[in-house]
Amino acid sequence: MPSSPTHQVPQPSAPQPSAPQPSAPVEFAGAARSIPPNVFAVTDRKVEESIAAGNDVIDLAKGNPDAYPEEFIRDAARQAIDDPANARYTPFDGKPAYLRAAADWYRRMHGVTLDWHTQLFAVEGAVDALAGLYSIILDPGDAVAFADPYYPSYHCMARMRRAEEILLPATRDHGFLPDLDAVGGEVWDRVKMLVLNYPNNPTGAQAPLEFLARSVELARRHRFVIVHDYAYCGLGVGTAGAGMAGVVDDGHGAAVGRAGQQHSILEVPGACDVAVEVCSLSKMYAMAGWRAGFVAGNAPVVDHLKRYHYQMGSMITGNVQDAGVVALQSDQSCVARLAQRYAERRRIVAQGLRSAGLDVFDSAGGIYVWALVPQAWRGDDGSGTTGGERFADVMLDRARVAMLPGSCFGSVGGDYVRLSLLKPRNMLEEAVRRICAAVAQTDDVGCAVRDLPCADAVR
């Protein structure tokens, strides 16, 4: 591997303004000038234009959950609204009951003991936490490492901090996990922060405990901080990927395994010496719009994040924290049901895409399908676009199905597309039917209809 595996991420062109924009009275700060264009905005604009033209578009590009919080969670929120205390500012660190519930959740689900006073902090979702962690850990010129493919905010936050980005290729051959041992010691010596994300967005990959343990070992040896973005916790299904992970109290003090669920990095002995974990209630409990989560782990990092947040952030609304308490204290069967729903949707979409000639990654978790486009679409065709970009554009134009090209998530995903599972089953079935039909009928890009498994079904 090169000694300096840095990478400049290609950016889509920003939307052109329809009218002259007023000039600012000052020059904006370097951080503001360095904000990259939103990689999702290009697809959003194309979808909006197609819908405005009268097309019936099934939008599988977005990651906005279609589920609704369970009734017991909504009941708790409704009751909490009538508590006069919730009309006031909540404690800076988070309500004690919320933090204790998070600590108890870690004990029951992962066998991890945390001091809720010093090792937990309430935040308004994962991105809120990540922005704060980037700010307290990275100075300009410091190095942050993360896998490619990656969630785009990791790159954008690094740019805004003027940090060096060290991208760790995570390829299909390694289950979309980076090969940590392929990185030289001199590179790890430059790293100040390593960002991990499992279950992964966009690939759905899960990381076995051995991988997390190796990360902790490297962090201890080379003295860097690990930030584990655990936003999709609980949404693993089956035995692929992580295998047995976590523990659940059976009600009698005994621990039982949770098959198919991603490990918390804090399960690794000694992890709290070098790591923090960012948890969100958005995906686990379908509370995306409620904005609640927490950061757990290394006490000095948590302490400095608190200090930063006291000045730069705001507290979670009181009734949302109260609802979060009952969600975290529940038996988690609502999370398991949600995971099974996504697993069934994943099966439907994967089967349909495979029949259209796409190579679908057998992910073990998350809320997306990550698929390699058919062979005829892959590589550089001389247009300056990736195979995933061309495929996504044609599917929006001909199938009226929106998806994200893998290039939104880095260079490794150039020939991939990401499809969201956050639509009802009947819409997903219709989407894959349209995709199959469009691919079978698209012979002007080299796709031979007769060679496609779905050809007979769509004629």
Question: Can you tell me about this structure?
Answer:
With 459 residues, the chain is of the alpha/beta class. It folds into two domains: 30-67 and 335-458, Aspartate Aminotransferase, domain 1; 71-334, Type I PLP-dependent aspartate aminotransferase-like (Major domain) (Aspartate Aminotransferase, domain 2). The chain is 38% helix and 15% strand. It has 15 helices and 15 strands. The strands form four sheets. Strands 2-10-9-6-5-3-4 form a seven-stranded mixed β-sheet, with helices on both faces. Strand 5 (191-197), helix 8 and strand 6 (225-229) form a beta-alpha-beta unit. Helix 3 (71-81) packs antiparallel against helix 11 (318-329). The protein is globular. It starts with 29 loop residues before the first helix and ends with a helix. Residues 1-13, 239-257 and 445-459 have low confidence and may be disordered. Residues 12-23 have a biased composition (Pro residues). Its cofactor is pyridoxal 5'-phosphate. Pfam families: Aminotran_1_2 (PF00155). Its EC number is 2.6.1.-. It is an enzyme of class 2 (transferase).
Give short descriptive properties of this protein.
Aspartate Aminotransferase, domain 1, 7-stranded mixed sheet, disordered C terminus, 38% helix, 4-stranded antiparallel sheet, Aspartate Aminotransferase, domain 2, disordered N terminus, 459 residues, 2 domains
